[in-house]
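Severity: low
Component: inverse-folding endpoint
Summary: output formatting inconsistent between runs
Steps to reproduce: submit the following structure tokens with default settings.
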């Protein structure tokens, strides 16, 4: 039996050009079709598009030539199955396209999860191909697609910094502190007080009051006020914005006292990239799966999952106090939220949960 799949695709050269398309899929032995119940759209998903070629994000859900499907995180329910171990009705949480459903090929199945090794996804990073099998009610379920994948990255950055003694820094600057990953790092550092370096949030004038109100940062500074920070203090910077002008200003202000410079995201997707030969530590890209792999090997999978789960529960409880959930349904509504997200018109205190049906 064939299935009609409705999918949202974007032009890989001009993300403002987007459309809904339909294709037909056939279910083969060992495969399932999961109907996508709800997914989140955040600035992080725009980063997936901006870094799509560099980090191979377009490969997870291939589209026609010149177009791509931006991955999102969400919940889906199996509606057809030719895989005996994954019955109809099974719910999963993980990496999805913006679509009504997804054909999956579950393998390496255990009680809590499986890997989707469907065709093109077989050779891609297992961090993104791992799906959680959902049983029963979940605490903070509606926050999970919005915050949990980002918080896992935040947890790993925080852990990586601590694992390296914060590189000798006495303060950690988060550029784009209002981004959800930036807030997650701020929360992680706040839990280490007073042993951790001071957490400094760098953000826009419009988001300064919001960032301060979370209580995650010791100090919040606007982008045009970098010079107010004490340049004599050994400093690490974690850049969630990808704004070369802001990063350059930080490097030139702290110079040799900038002991670590890590790039994580591209929330300022249209901003110019940083020039080469900046003073201070050389900027480099943080790849979360590397630290995840290290900790799984050192702690064991069970202990790693427990530590992340405990930290997530604490963050979700806190975030539930400041996040406003916005729910949208249907093709037109999803396209509008995407356009607003692309244009930077989304309030950082909002979390957008979307569904087609």
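Observed output (run 2 of 3):
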């Amino acid at each position: 039996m064939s299935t009609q799949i409705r999918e949202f695709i974007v032009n890989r050269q001009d993300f403002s050009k987007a459309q809904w398309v339909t294709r037909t899929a056939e279910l083969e032995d060992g495969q399932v079709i999961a109907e996508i119940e709800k997914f989140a759209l955040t600035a992080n998903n725009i980063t997936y598009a901006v870094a799509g070629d560099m980090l191979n994000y377009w490969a997870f859900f291939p589209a026609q030539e010149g177009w791509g499907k931006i991955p999102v995180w969400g919940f889906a329910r199996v509606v057809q199955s030719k895989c005996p171990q994954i019955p109809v009705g099974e719910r999963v949480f993980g990496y999805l396209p913006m679509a009504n459903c997804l054909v999956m090929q579950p393998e390496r199945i255990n009680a809590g999860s499986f890997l989707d090794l469907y065709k093109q996804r077989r050779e891609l990073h297992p961090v993104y191909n791992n799906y959680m099998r959902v049983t029963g009610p979940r605490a903070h379920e509606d926050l999970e697609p919005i915050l949990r994948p980002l918080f896992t990255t935040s947890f790993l950055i925080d852990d990586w910094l601590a694992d390296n003694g914060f590189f000798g820094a006495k303060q950690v600057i988060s550029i784009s502190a209002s981004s959800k990953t930036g807030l997650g790092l701020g929360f992680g550092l706040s839990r280490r007080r007073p042993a951790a370096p001071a957490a400094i949030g760098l953000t826009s004038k419009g988001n300064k009051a919001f960032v301060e109100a979370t209580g995650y940062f010791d100090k919040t500074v606007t982008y045009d006020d970098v010079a107010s920070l004490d340049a004599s203090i050994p400093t690490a910077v974690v850049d969630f914005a990808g704004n070369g002008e802001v990063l350059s200003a930080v490097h030139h202000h702290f110079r040799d006292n900038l002991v670590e410079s890590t790039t994580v995201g591209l929330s300022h997707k249209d901003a110019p990239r940083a020039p080469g030969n900046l003073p201070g530590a050389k900027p480099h890209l943080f790849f979360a799966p590397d630290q995840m792999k290290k900790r799984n090997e050192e702690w064991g999978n069970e202990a790693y999952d427990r530590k992340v789960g405990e930290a997530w529960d604490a963050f979700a409880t806190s975030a539930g106090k400041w996040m406003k959930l916005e729910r949208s349904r249907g093709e037109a509504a999803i396209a509008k939220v995407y356009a607003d997200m692309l244009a930077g018109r989304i309030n950082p205190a909002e979390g957008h949960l979307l569904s087609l049906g």
